[in-house]
Amino acid sequence: MNQGKAFYKKISHMLPAGFLVLVLLPLLLLPLASVFIYALRGGLGNLAAALTTTDVLFALRFSLIIAFATAVINTVLGTYAAWVLSKTRFPGREQLGIILNLPVAIPNVVVGTSLLLLWGPIGLFGQVLEPLGIQPMFTPVGVLLAHVFVTFPYMLGTIKPVLDDLETTYEEAAYTMGASRWQTFLHVLFPALKGGLLTGALLTFAHSLGEFGATVMVSGNLRLRTQTAPLYIFSQFESGNIQAANSVAAVLAILSFALFSLILFLAARTGKKGAQRGK
Amino acid sequence: MSILIDQISKKYGDHTVVDQVSLDVDDGELVVLLGSSGSGKSTILRLVAGLILPDEGRIMLSGVDITHLPPQRRGLGFVFQNYSIFPNMTIAENIEFGMKIRKVPLRERKARSEHLLELVGLPGMGSRYSSQLSGGQQQRVALARALAYEPPVLLLDEPLGAVDTKTRIQLRQSLKSILKDIGVTTMMVTHDQQEAFELADRVAIMNNGQIEQCGLPGDVYYNPATQFTADFVGDINFFEGRVTASTTEECEIELFGHWPVRRRGSHPFQPGRNVLYGVRPEQIRVSLLEPETYENGIKGVIEKSMFFGDVTRYSIRLDGGSVLDVRVLNYLFIEGMVMPYELNEEVWLIWSQGSGIILADETAPQPNGLSTAS
Amino acid sequence: MFGRPLFRWVLRITIVCVVLAVGLWTIWPWLPSQKDRRPRTIVLYGFSILEPVITKGIFPAFQKRWFEQTGQRVELISSFGGSGTVTNQLIMGVPAEVAILSTELDAQRLQKAGVVHGETWKKLPHKGVMNRTPFIIQVRPGNPKRIHDFSGLTQPGVRVVHMDPLTSGAANWAIVAEYGAAVRQPGSGPDAGRAMLLGIWRNVAVQAGSGRAARTQFDSGFGDALITYEQDAIWSRSRGSSRFEIVYPRSTILSEHTVVVIDERVSERQKELVGAFVDFLWSEEAQRIFVRSGFRSVDERLNSLNPQFGHIRDPFFIDDFGGWRKAKLTIIDDTWKNRVVKELKP
């Protein structure tokens, strides 16, 4: 009787989790698993061969470089934006905050189109720049521009809450002790932001690595010049090279998985530190 | 180093936070700004530190105008209410921060921070982080950090506001002795009257962005210039009265239209003038016997008694209908020197003709002719 | 007590090492020591079915020849998509130096948009036509619906997979093929053509965005017949990926694929290289490669080299209808779009 009750209790505890897994299985886990199954179907040799073609090597390298550059640029821009929104007061501050977060709400394809319509050879600025020999679209610079645009809110979103929580008296204390604004940033604000900066940069990096919608619009999808890994996957899938597409997809999946584990690990660690500080 | 604050004002929008305040602090003096929250006292401190800039007026440091100097170039020490110990640095690194900015050599820095930690009673704690310290310890670190680069002026913003009562009293004493030792010119802000009286050379009472009165603690307590000051520092019973006679030696006032009281000393009030007459609860004794001729006395009925540990507070209804508060030291009962009073017992309230405060009654006559602060 | 910090350090060092290794690998080709080895480039946009033959056949051959002639390495920067899509990208301003389109129609659009000035492709060999391939019908194994000509597609109950003329160059070719096959019957006129289109399009079960997409749908088991390039069918068969039979209509069109050099985007320095590449497309070596991968050469003598090419009794060309400008107007717009499509609407 008692034992039965305990058993029932045990089962009823596991039920919600079990249900979640059941829902997630076809939604998340199985599709991911199938990428790996397809990638490995032809054996490791085939996988290695598919991953070492000039196109794949270029696409992976290009994606990594763009992601890195995007992360660096948005770390600076995003931190500055967060600082402005969090630590300065001016009319229209809230509206600006909404505008800066817009890229999250706008579909990436639309971002790509709008960039094209602005900077493209037939676009507003593009028409002026074209005769000068400046043409950012369909070049790596264009891809970078799109990625910076699309991933901008991630850094902002990570840093701003940290800055909001950081009392201004820390800065003021540093000022009264003679520290300049820069010294205050370097010695007081930056150390407090370090965890957030790393998390934000990784988040930006991961999103840039997987970006497709805007890239496909502004890159011209040129192999060996502007073709990122996701574009390569798409192109190969379209022309029926499922094996090639899946090999790269598997690599991207592993990279993203590693990145997000790192992000979660960092987030958990900074969270713990925060709690310790709060006591 | 002396501070001179000259006609300084600060507005936020339409709201005037500091209204033409002037104050000077002498070299080595400790002036406490005492006021309730929103009285503008913290704003004055931040103006002196340069964290905000005034709309009007000047601030001079030993005769040098520093009104528009950024905080970095004023070189003052500031202790924040929440201490703001940098969480990413050790205690020693916190204390050395100001010296590091000033490029003091490492060895000198180390020696100084160790010395300061000893001074504030935290020897050997340098390698810890603020998260490992209690509130009181953090306060002492904040003080050490502000003193580290030997600032000419120390500014303390509610330095003991964030610790519990018991620690606060201990810290008060150690703070006082440290500041006495160093002899640094200090401005401190607090809302705690006891703290102000214990630490201050002079106290400035702040209200609505203005200084109501500035003086020695005893002066402010016994000779408040305004009703607000009298109310704000300690408890006081106020009565509405009328001057009936005034000489260079004494002044006679009629309370409730029929109770005469006397106050020794010269007062600038002409007979017939409406005044407020105040007396502090601890100056009144309760007695079953009539007052002596050299004493003031008034009759009432015990309405309520409250036990406070060291004292018992009686609320006594006067025959005018008003209620007055009196405090009686409890040891007097224990020693048998005074018998405890029963409720509804008729008693005399007696105080010396040398105590009592007379203020001009600027306001319209109050309906019940009495106000009680507690 | 000792294990945890040690583990943490090992983890930390591992992460740093992995990140550094990936970083180094990433920037390797751009390192200074590698820089002088970076090759010259040609930027090419092509329509979809060209991708395998260009990237795996034609370009490596050109690369080799150019290296032998000049000692320079040259790399192909390329993008492939539907002919219409590629044309749109070119109009948007992608930095193509050479474009290969599936129809002259798209080349004319480029001219209209000002991407090229005048019909410059006409000055190239064979008026810019690089190779050809006839339109054929692909049916299920055993030809269960007994389809032997375009007229077979008009039988009730046949489900046809067709490309969408709005986005696909191949669909335009297919419509002209269907129309032409009917009007070229002895003793028939434009009405026969319209009747043929009406019959076939009544049976169109799905319109796919591109030739590639149409094939994917047919391969996944949808429909009874697919109208497509012969090359596409041969290439598909060579990969062994699908089981089907090819039906050669009695008369059908040979689609002609046009090379356009975007002169404005070819810098002075690139002129010689791009010129050499374009010339190479018509060389015997290149034409043989085209034939081997299922395209019919502009040089008829080479076409006997591929035994997979089927016989067409009455092949015809777009010029038989007065060129694309006229055919577009009379066949695509007037007959198909304005009449057939409208009649089909309920």
Topology diagram in text:
The complex is a heterotrimer of chains A (279), B (374) and C (346).
Chain A: H1 2-40, H2 43-51, H3 54-87, H4 93-105, H5 108-119, H6 124-129, H7 140-165, H8 168-176, H9 181-210, H10 213-219, H11 229-238, H12 242-278
Chain B: E1 3-12, E2 15-25, E3 30-35, H1 41-49, E4 56-61, E5 64-65, E6 77-79, H2 91-101, H3 106-119, H4 135-147, E7 153-157, H5 165-182, E8 185-190, H6 193-199, E9 202-207, E10 210-215, H7 217-222, H8 227-232, E11 236-246, E12 250-255, E13 259-264, E14 274-279, E15 285-287, E16 295-307, E17 311-318, E18 323-329, H9 330-334, E19 346-352, E20 357-360, E21 370-373
Parallel strand pairs in B: 3-8, 3-9, 6-7, 7-8
Antiparallel strand pairs in B: 1-2, 1-4, 4-5, 9-10, 11-12, 11-14, 11-21, 12-13, 14-20, 15-19, 16-17, 16-19, 17-18
Chain C: H1 3-27, H2 32-35, E1 40-47, H3 51-70, E2 74-81, H4 83-92, E3 98-101, H5 104-112, E4 129-139, E5 160-163, H6 169-183, H7 190-202, E6 204-208, H8 211-219, E7 225-229, H9 230-238, E8 245-247, E9 251-261, H10 271-281, H11 284-292, E10 296-297, E11 314-316, H12 323-344
What would a concise description of this structure say?
By secondary structure, chain A is an all-alpha fold.
Overall structural domain count of chain B: 2
| Average pLDDT taken over every residue of chain B | 87
List the secondary-structure elements of chain B in sequence, H or E: EEEHEEEHHHEHEHEEHHEEEEEEEEHEEE
Mean pLDDT of chain A: 85
Q: Give the N-terminus to C-terminus distance of chain A in angstroms.
A: 45 Å
Radius of gyration of chain A, Cα only, in angstroms?
Answer: 23 Å
The name of the CATH topology of chain A is MetI-like fold
Helicity of chain A, in percent? over 70%
Strand order of the largest sheet of chain B: 6-7-8-3-9-10
Q: What is the makeup of the main sheet of chain B?
A: 6 strands, mixed
Strand segment tally of chain A: 0
Q: What overall geometry of chain B do the principal axes of the alpha carbons give?
A: elongated
Give the beta-strand count of chain B. 21
